[in-house]
């Protein structure tokens, strides 16, 4: 999913958006409902990475 596409590890993403690695695993494996707030956090962080990569 996004981790491979954007070169992130689960640990890095979890730390950046302040959730547990297990939460990231559950999201990736569709094991849990993802709240709008959580979805927004993930999207915003990935957007941030995309913008920074296009600048560099």
Helical/strand content category: mainly alpha
Please give the number of β-strands. Answer: 0
Largest sheet: none
So what's the overall shape? globular
**Low-confidence runs (pLDDT<50, min 5 residues)?**
none
Helical content stands at over 70%
Q: How many domain regions? A: 1
Tell me the fraction of residues in β-strands, as a range: under 5%
Secondary-structure element series: HHHH
Mean of residue pLDDT values: 79
Number of distinct helices: 4
Q: Tell me the radius of gyration.
A: 11 Å
CATH topology, what is it called?
A: 434 Repressor (Amino-terminal Domain)
How far apart are the first and last residues' alpha carbons, in Å? 23 Å
In brief, what are we looking at here?
The protein is mostly helical and 56 residues long. 71% of the residues lie in helices and 0% in strands. The chain starts with a helix and ends with a helix.
Structure description:
The longest helix is centred in the last third of the chain and has 20 residues, at 36-55. The protein has one domain: 434 Repressor (Amino-terminal Domain). The chain is 71% helix and 0% strand. With 56 residues, the chain is an all-alpha fold. The radius of gyration is 11 Å and the shape is globular. The protein has helices at residues 2-5, 10-17, 21-28, 36-55. Helix 2 (10-17) packs across helix 3 (21-28). The mean pLDDT is 79. The N and C termini lie far apart (23 Å). It comes from Flavivirga aquimarina. Residues 7-47 form the HTH cro/C1-type domain. It holds the Pfam family HTH_3. This is Helix-turn-helix transcriptional regulator.
